């Protein structure tokens, strides 16, 4: 079976690797164009492009899928199926109609929940305990096609977006191979999505990761997990942007130092392993940070060269 692959971020790479390991012929790969991605704003290839070039697979990077050039490439490739994993562009109907066995998408949620560009981040931010991966036949809308297979995945209490994304990418890769085997045998199911249960996970803006210390500690914890490793949930400390990558909700009364009625965002305790901060409900223990212009550090290492005082208020 010939498979044209469309994908861009690190999440998509295990899926392409699984196709090759399972013996599928991949005549070409579509991915997003090179863009400034590093701290120095150097133009870098997508992870999918870098992996495909290592395997000497022809790579196409069109700005859109609406040109005749794309049709010519697909006509020459003659794919039996097109697989799309976090490509980043809406696939036009004329392309959906090209492969005889359909266009297949792998999505990092249990559809119809969390349709859209940021299903992992949104699920963590919402405090979900469970998510999963779905394979489906693609339709014209975003993530609206008939479901083929799904696998549920537990979200650990302290799992970050990066950790959960890695787990889901490997689960999705296995599910993709199973899906293609069913399609090849002509026995793949088609389960219509329940539109009444649909929820949406639009792309996150950077401002959505600004910490509101009047929120409960649990809500702040979920935001910090969702922003790790990128772009990082942030607040302000003495006028500078202060990112927080890891921490935990204080559950042990012995961890809490009473300072009367602290303000939301007020530092209440300095400790080599955590910085205790008051929130709208409960206390949050900050464990890993990054100050503007610096690198990520444990809070103990950060405090060695950057004094913070009890009574300082984050967010100002």
CATH superfamily of the largest domain: Formyl transferase, N-terminal domain
CATH fold naming of the largest domain:
Rossmann fold
Q: Architecture of the largest domain, according to CATH?
A: 3-Layer(aba) Sandwich
User: How do the strands of the widest beta sheet line up side by side?
Assistant: 5-2-1-6-7-8-9
What is the overall number of helices? 8
Return the average pLDDT rounded to an integer: 94
Q: Rg to the nearest angstrom?
A: 22 Å
The residue fraction in helices comes out at 25-40%
Most strands sheet: 7 strands, mixed
Low-confidence stretches: none
The proportion of residues in beta strands is 15-25%
Topology, element by element:
Blueprint (H helix, E strand, L loop, with lengths): L2 E5 L5 H9 L7 E2 L4 E2 L6 E2 L2 H8 L4 E2 L7 H10 L3 E5 L7 H4 L6 E5 L11 H7 L4 E8 L9 E8 L6 H25 L31 H10 L6 E5 L2 E10 L17 E5 L2 E5 L4 E9 L5 E2 H7 L11
Parallel strand pairs: 1-2, 1-6, 2-5, 6-7
Antiparallel strand pairs: 3-4, 7-8, 8-9, 10-11, 11-14, 12-13, 13-14, 14-15
Task: Describe the protein.
Helix content is 25%, strand content 24%. The chain starts with a strand and ends in an 11-residue tail after the last helix. It contains eight helices and 15 strands. The relative contact order is 0.11. Helix 1 runs parallel beside helix 6 (161-185) and helix 5 (119-125) runs antiparallel to helix 7 (217-226). The protein folds into two domains: 3-197, Rossmann fold; 206-305, Methionyl-tRNA Fmet Formyltransferase, Chain A, domain 2 (Roll). It has 316 residues and is of the alpha/beta class. The longest helix is centred in the middle third of the chain and has 25 residues, at 161-185.
């Amino acid at each position: 079976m010939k498979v044209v692959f469309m994908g861009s971020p690190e999440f998509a790479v295990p899926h392409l690797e699984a196709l090759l390991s399972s013996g599928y012929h991949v005549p070409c790969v579509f991915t997003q164009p090179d863009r400034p991605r590093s701290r120095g704003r150097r133009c870098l290839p997508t992870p999918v492009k870098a992996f495909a070039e290592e395997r000497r697979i022809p790579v196409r990077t069109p700005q859109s899928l609406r040109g005749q050039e794309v049709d010519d490439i697909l006509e020459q490739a003659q794919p039996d199926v097109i697989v799309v994993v976090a490509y980043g562009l809406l696939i036009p109907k004329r392309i959906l109609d090209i492969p005889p066995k359909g266009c297949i998408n792998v999505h990092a949620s249990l559809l119809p929940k969390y349709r859209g560009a940021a299903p992992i981040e949104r699920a963590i931010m919402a405090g979900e305990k469970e998510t999963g991966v779905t394979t489906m036949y693609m339709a014209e809308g975003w993530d609206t096609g008939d479901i083929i297979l799904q696998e549920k995945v537990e979200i650990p209490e302290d799992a970050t977006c990066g950790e959960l994304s890695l787990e889901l990418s490997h689960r999705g890769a296995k599910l993709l191979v199973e899906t293609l085997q069913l399609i090849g045998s002509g026995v793949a199911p088609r389960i219509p999505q329940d539109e009444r249960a649909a929820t949406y996970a639009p792309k996150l803006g950077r401002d959505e990761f600004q910490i509101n210390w009047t929120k409960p500690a649990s809500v702040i914890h979920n935001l910090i997990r969702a922003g790790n490793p990128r772009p990082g949930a942030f607040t302000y400390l003495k006028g500078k942007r202060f990112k927080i990558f890891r921490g935990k909700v204080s559950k042990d009364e012995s961890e809490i130092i009473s300072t009367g009625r602290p303000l939301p965002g007020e530092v209440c305790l300095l400790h080599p392993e955590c910085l205790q901060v008051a929130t709208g409900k409960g206390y949050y223990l900050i464990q890993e940070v990054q100050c503007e212009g610096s690198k990520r550090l444990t809070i103990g290492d950060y405090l060695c060269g950057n004094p913070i005082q009890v009574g300082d208020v984050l967010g100002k």
